[in-house]
Prior knowledge:
By secondary structure, chain A is mainly α. Chain A has eleven helices and no strands. In chain A, 66% of the residues lie in helices and 0% in strands. In chain A, helix 1 crosses helix 6 (111-118) and helix 8 (136-143) crosses helix 9. The longest helix of chain A is centred in the C-terminal third of the chain and has 22 residues, at 149-170. Chain A starts with 18 loop residues before the first helix and ends in a 6-residue tail after the last helix. The structure holds a DNA duplex.
Amino acid sequence: MSDAAPQDTPGPPKRRRDASATRQAILSAAVAAFTRYGYDGVGVRDIAQSAGVTAMLINRYFGSKEQLFAEAVDAAFAPRTVIAGTGAALAGETARTLVARTAPEAEELGPFLLMLRSAANPRAAQIMREAITRHAGRHLNEELSGAGAGIRAELMLSLQAGVWLLRSVLGTPALSEGPPEDLAQHIEALFQVLVTPCAAE
Amino acid sequence: MSDAAPQDTPGPPKRRRDASATRQAILSAAVAAFTRYGYDGVGVRDIAQSAGVTAMLINRYFGSKEQLFAEAVDAAFAPRTVIAGTGAALAGETARTLVARTAPEAEELGPFLLMLRSAANPRAAQIMREAITRHAGRHLNEELSGAGAGIRAELMLSLQAGVWLLRSVLGTPALSEGPPEDLAQHIEALFQVLVTPCAAE
DNA sequence: TCCCGATGTCTACAACTGTAGACTTATCTG
DNA sequence: CAGATAAGTCTACAGTTGTAGACATCGGGA
């Protein structure tokens, strides 16, 4: 923001003129920046500088900040699986993965955080609504089956998003400071309820 | 924004000069605006106009936008209880309250939404972190007891926040369109696990 | 009655935002 | 070795933001 570092990638100080590589660099920088600061919290100049280009190139490649955000959301959701393991081990694996990913020292920020930090902007929220029903919802529906699979799948997402929120973003004490194993066991018990087809009646 | 409407409150077109009443009007407008648009999504001019005053009066009464936000967060959390019922009925009551509050047609936006929409700004996040540990955390710790009460309390908050997020903000299909009773039953089953003192081992 | 302090407004500024058009420079083809 | 075209940059603009200082106005006490 205020320092005058010429480049942030220490390797190649100047990229050869390559349209697709530059486009990819902008997109990666956008994912990181939107995840960290949210749609309204970051400007195209910041993203451009982080990618080693000027702001106008973003408009040339993506049309506008909104369209860049849409592609960034897709890129953030695409390679990510929100569940882990299969069958009986699904609850435990997913719980441990969640705890590991939301650890305060883990710098890996995920699509949930991107979603969270950009939810204030109506345009951004609409873009993300489409993305989440496209990626995560479909993925979960493939793993879960039985009565109320849709509800249970999205409740699984809800709990993950909530833990992410309180633990990683807000830094609530009990979730942040206690031993991770205890937390994982508690969460696993909840997931166990959700993977069971007919829970209530 | 662009119209020249002199006042928005149809009742008293001009408030008599009353410092505390004006202060309260600004605070109410701030809670509503921050909840709807987030910390970065609303300007002091919007809040001022909604309160029927000019922007500068906000700085006169609250010092800065940040300090106004801090008071707004406190005001949003203060009158709200995030759990309902006691003892054996706690899980069911809280589940039904959550479902009712996060209904798409319910226009009652809560502190979770304020928190969510403002989480992108680091200053705002710090202010909210202090508020949530002060209000909700304390409240829950009084109701829950036994082994891992802190973790279970915050997991209860996590699930609520997550459901709020997917259902009310994102509008995810399975959580938004299905019958509320089914959703409440599924959530109650999860809460039931969380109110039980020794869940895992 | 007068006047002083509290209450509220007006003008302005410096910083920042996203975007448009004109400009420069490198890379590849003939 | 040219020249054309893609790749990237520079300057600028209109808008918005939070805030500071000077100014106006209402209300009550002497």
